[in-house]
Amino acid sequence: MQNRMVWPVMKPDRSALEVLGLTKRFDRLAVDSLDLTIHAGEFYALVGPNGAGKTTTLRMVAGLLRPDAGAVSIFGIDALQNPVAAKQVMAWVSDEPMIYDKLTPLEYLEFVAGLWGIAPSVSEPVAQELLSSLGLEPHRHERCEGFSKGMRQKVALAGALVHDPRLIILDEPLTGLDAVSARHVKGLLSERVKAGCTIIMTTHILEVAERMADRIGVIASGRLVAEGTLTELRQQNGHGDTSLEDLFIALVTLQEAA
Amino acid sequence: MSSATALSWFARHELRLAWREWFAMMTGGRRKRTRAAVIGLLFFAALLHVPAWAVIGRFADLYLPLDKSALIVISATIFLAWTLMVSQAIESVTRVFYARADLDLIMSSPATLANLFSVRIAAIALSVTVMALLFSMPFIDVLVFGGGARWLAAFGLVVAMGLSAAAVAIAVTILLFRLIGPARTRLIAQILAAIIGAGFVIALQVAAIMSYGTLSRFTILTSGSVADHAPDVDSFWWWPARAAMGDGGPLLLLLALGLVLLGSVMAIFSGRFADTAIDAAAYGKSGRQGAKERPFRGGSRQRALRRKEFSLLWRDPWLVSQTLMQLLYLVPPALLLWRSFADSSAALTLITPVIVMAAGQLAGGLAWLTISGEDAPDLVATAPLTPSGVTRAKIEVVLIAIAVIFCPLVTALAFASPLQAAVSAGAVVISAASATAIQLWFRVQARRSQFRRRQTSSRLATFAEAFSSIGWAASAALLLALPLAGIISGLITAGLVAITWKFSPRRE
After folding, report:
1. Highest mean pLDDT range out of B63-77, B320-334, B492-506?
2. Which of B132, B307, B455, B498 matches a 20 to 30 Å C-alpha distance to A91?
3. How many A/B residue pairs have CB atoms within 8 Å?
């Protein structure tokens, strides 16, 4: 049983995630020799059209899919050789919240904390705090079976945060959330990044990537076609002050034409 | 569109949905399996005529008038079939109430809800009746081949039974909603369905044990004392038996009674059916109060996983009702054990196969729920545990649950016959382990709510699980009576489990 981890704010040169030559083929090539480095304490947004390979990439990083080739390193831990140690420091939230209908949010958080081996004396106040900050406090003793998709998403997100991970991987976390809840979640994620946590997020809402992310990666046909801060992306592609949306469309169109 | 046209359109829609649901269940949701499913069904239906002939063939030559004993046996069999139909109908009605897939669409439409729900009630009655006709067909066919066309009247009786069973089920379920509310009805209705389905057989067995010290229910039905207390042969109580044998008057009356009963239920309850469905939907939206405030509990990661599995199993209405049914079926052997405690009655041997089979069946269901029915697979897969650690914790849950249920019975058996208790305990463990292993080899990613359709994902696993339970039960019984035969039977069953492993997709 471990106590809550408190880590110093990482220097930007230390990588939280390194992906080298990651490849996955289903009936077609989904991820094509992808290289990706994400620095510790960074908020990284992965954007791309439908079927570009964003979710497949993140599922391989989270240990949910076995890559055909390539290497994944999380805070220096080889995630393919030592998955248990890698999983200890990260959390995964999918776009489709998967929680237990017959458990209450509090019971769900107790279970997740137990799975990550967090001492009850540490996890219980964190769980209460998370439920409160996500507006789930009045429902903490109700079973999740009647919750809306937004509420379920918030419970799943609380589950990802209750064990205080160093790396959080989020696949479309704002899907189904109303404006108020989405703002709560964004605030919560920003706080985590300020505290030194690393976040990788896929999103279709380019405005969110534009506002929140330190760096943005654009993925198309399983390849990283552009990467950098918004300013860098604009400079790289010769667009002065265009929006991310225009930039995204230009990059994806170019990739599809190639 | 006129009202009548709209209703006939809705009726066609309901029937199409019912047909597709049933067909998907038969084919495992794969359209490519259609031909195989049809051939399999026809083969299975033809095969069913063999046990039907063995069970009922000797009654084909019966002619009216019958004596009281024969009337009692036939009537009891018909009543047993009717209780099973009521049980099935309660399950169908509860499912309709809680399945919210199309309720919003129906309720937001400009159609008269009472009329639409009348059609839905009729569709439930029709599906219960058609299922009953399908299951009774081999038995009635055997009677028709052996005793002549007069037995065709039995099909009419099955229709009357189906209509009345659906009517009773709808009335009971709606009354439950009104009495105890939507929150408890799902659980209570499922328990009620289990009790109604098993209750009559168990009651007969209990009476036979108390009076004659045997598990055979026919002993009580054919006894002189029951015949003495039964009504006269021309009483209306024997109408179902007479109708089955081709007596036209009672048959028409029973058909009319079934129709009137269903019509009355539709007239009285179709309006409330809509209210009840709305209540059920609202229940789902508001959620339900769970456990009271208590501090978080510590322990290992595997312990957290086991605790979660136990909580989910305990809160699963289907599982509670199925476990209750298993326990109900254990009541007669437990009673027999208590009755035969002093003497070393041969009847005592019958307890072992019942226990072993129940353990195998229950373990199979529990193993599916814990291993395949994982509602948050991503969470468990991304947790810092090895996959083998997760699987081990889940298997432990199954075996602990089986031990908790069956230990008291085996311990009681140890006082009467230590050898039999040892054999029973060993067979319970092997039977539960085999069923769990089969579920592990054939595991699929599924939601717990898909439990009812678990058989469709792999027919091989379903049959293997059933044959394994039956095989270990027979082996244990034979080991006590004829040890060599028991060993041979055990080896055959082990071979069957090994072959299942060979054909399983997870043998690597």
Report:
1. B492-506
2. B307
3. 124
Mean pLDDT of B371-384: 89
Identify residues of A whose CB sits under 8 angstroms from chain B CBs: 1, 62-64, 84-85, 87-88, 90-92, 94, 98-104, 107, 110-117, 119-120, 123-124, 127, 139, 141-147, 156, 159
Judge: A92–B299 Cβ closer than 8 Å, yes or no. no
Q: Specify the pLDDT at position B435.
A: 94
pLDDT band with cut points at 50, 70 and 90 for residue B331:
confident
Q: Which residue of chain A has the CA closest to B295?
A: A124
Q: Check residue B278 and give its pLDDT.
A: 67
Cα B101 to chain centroid distance, Å, stands at: 24
Contact A87 B383 (CB under 8 A): yes
Query: What is the rounded distance in angstroms from the CA atom of residue B307 to the CA atom of residue B287?
Result: 22
DSSP class per residue in chain A = -BPPP--PPPPTTSEEEEEEEEEEESSSEEEEEEEEEEETT-EEEEE--TTSSHHHHHHHHTTSS--SEEEEEETTEETTT-HHHHHHTEEEE-SS----TTS-HHHHHHHHHHHTTB-HHHHHHHHHHHHHHTT-GGGTTB-GGG--HHHHHHHHHHHHHTT--SEEEEESTTTT--HHHHHHHHHHHHHHHHTT-EEEEE-S-HHHHHHH-SEEEEEETTEEEEEE-HHHHHHHTT-SS--HHHHHHHHHHHHHH-
> Where residue A159 falls among pLDDT bands split at 50, 70, 90?
very high
pLDDT, averaged across chain B: 81
CB atoms A115 and B287 under 8 Å? no
Q: Which of A128-142, B115-129, B218-232 has the lowest mean pLDDT?
A: B218-232
Q: Indicate the burial class of B103 (C-beta count within 10 angstroms; 0-12, 13-18, 19 or more).
A: middle
Residue A84, pLDDT > 70, answer: yes
Render A118-172 in DSSP notation, one character per residue: B-HHHHHHHHHHHHHHTT-GGGTTB-GGG--HHHHHHHHHHHHHTT--SEEEEES
